[in-house]
Design a protein that fits this description.
The chain is of the alpha+beta class and 386 residues long. It contains 9 helices and 21 strands. It is globular, with a radius of gyration of 21 Å.
Length: 386
């Protein structure tokens, strides 16, 4: 088994992460939204201080790649000028909130997310670095498959509920109590030993036998989640993807000239406000049947020091031949950062080639080991491709 360094935290702007192509600087926009001026600014900063590549993350954030250490201070100053920087590292680390991208100005989604963000700036303490919240109380529940530890959702008749991730039921709450109950649940998590178990996630804590506090032992189910993320024109604007979750500064700058604002999503897609047709550019994914939507690939070598192969290149080569309806995860190492969960097909790069895991994650036991890129590309039977 390959040996990798598990950091246990995500990069930020104040706390960048070293990678194979330089510093990785993550921008966490308020409500997951950047206006056209901010988008153009990020594009300019990526070109000037980084290597011109920008990641869309599964936490609905943006990452500027390849930042040089000598340029980091100047980049921080520019982020502050554009209103894209939290006051300090602690505030940034606590504000780990995933927001449905289909909000409207002044609705309960925005007010709850704002209230929660302000409350998290000063506490609670003792939460693990990756502990996060989902504000998914729009007209449709869309974040059910995305990572979060505490969820603010709706039940099947439209009432607000607070639910611990991994719990079948949540507690129905009035609007005025939603954030308070969510924070009380967050305080319970470390107090009950959750921060000491595994990687400090709520679902694992509950699966391990943790008993929720009395006020959370309710029988209210969240509304059914039926949303399938795919490029489309929505009431809020045009929803589209970026090939393998990455675009160049030139593409972001181009988008800044077309949209009123851009909303990030946890599906490595963007929603362009004010656009009534899908933007057409080579790096963008605008068709629901584009096979690249069903392939997840981490940054890979040489961009990541942990990776043993160029995952993006292999993913691009395999995507066109993927079976209809099938999905694939290509991971540069056993960490599986891009997709920690199970997938029908997972390829894991090692010193000896690629290991193939069926219906599992990058950490699971492979069914085949040491496959070469040539084998994978030239022999469709290996992945069950037609």
């Amino acid at each position: 088994m390959s040996t990798v360094a598990i950091k246990g935290w995500c990069p930020g702007a104040w706390q960048p992460m070293e990678s194979g192509d330089g510093l990785l600087v993550r921008i966490r926009p308020q409500l997951g939204r950047i206006d056209a001026v901010q988008a153009a600014g990020i594009a300019e900063m990526s070109e000037r201080y980084g290597n011109g590549l920008i990641d869309l993350t599964s936490r609905a954030n943006l990452q500027i790649r390849g930042v040089r250490e000598a340029s980091f201070s100047a980049l921080i100053e520019r982020l502050a000028e554009f209103g894209l920087l939290d006051p300090d590292p602690d505030s940034e680390g606590r504000r780990n909130i995933l927001v449905t991208p289909f909000w409207a100005n002044g609705d309960e989604v925005t007010s709850i997310a704002d209230e929660l963000g302000h409350a998290l700036a000063s506490g609670p303490v003792g939460l693990p670095a990756k502990f996060g919240f989902a504000v998914d109380c729009g007209s449709e529940r869309v974040l059910a498959k995305n990572s979060a530890d505490i969820r603010i959702e709706r039940d099947d008749v439209g009432h607000l509920i607070v639910r611990a991730d991994g719990a079948e039921f949540g507690r129905r709450v009035a609007r005025i109590d939603a954030v308070r109950v969510a924070l009380e649940l967050a305080e319970w998590f470390p107090a009950s030993g959750g921060a000491k178990e595994g990687r400090g996630r709520m679902a694992a804590h509950i699966a391990g036998g943790a008993r929720l506090p009395d006020y959370m032992r309710c029988d209210v189910k969240p509304a059914r989640a039926s949303f399938a993320s795919a490029p489309d024109v929505m009431p809020q604007g045009a929803l589209f993807g970026a090939a393998f979750g990455q675009m160049t500064y030139a593409t972001l700058n181009w988008l800044a000239g077309k949209a009123q604002a851009l909303r990030m999503t946890p599906w490595r897609m963007m929603l362009a406000e004010g656009l009534h047709e899908l933007p057409q550019r080579d790096e963008l994914v605008t068709r629901a049947d584009d096979s690249r939507l069903r392939v997840i690939a981490c940054s890979g070598a040489p961009r990541c020091r942990q990776a043993h192969a160029d995952t993006r290149a292999l993913a691009a080569a395999l995507a066109p031949g993927l079976d209809a309806g099938g999905s694939l995860h290509v991971s540069g190492c056993i960490k599986g950062c891009a997709h920690p969960k199970s997938a029908p097909l997972t390829l894991v790069a090692t010193h000896e080639g690629f290991d193939l895991v069926r219906d599992g994650s990058a950490r699971d036991v492979p069914s085949r080991r040491g496959l070469s890129e040539k084998q994978l590309i030239e022999d469709p039977a290996i992945l069950g491709r037609a």
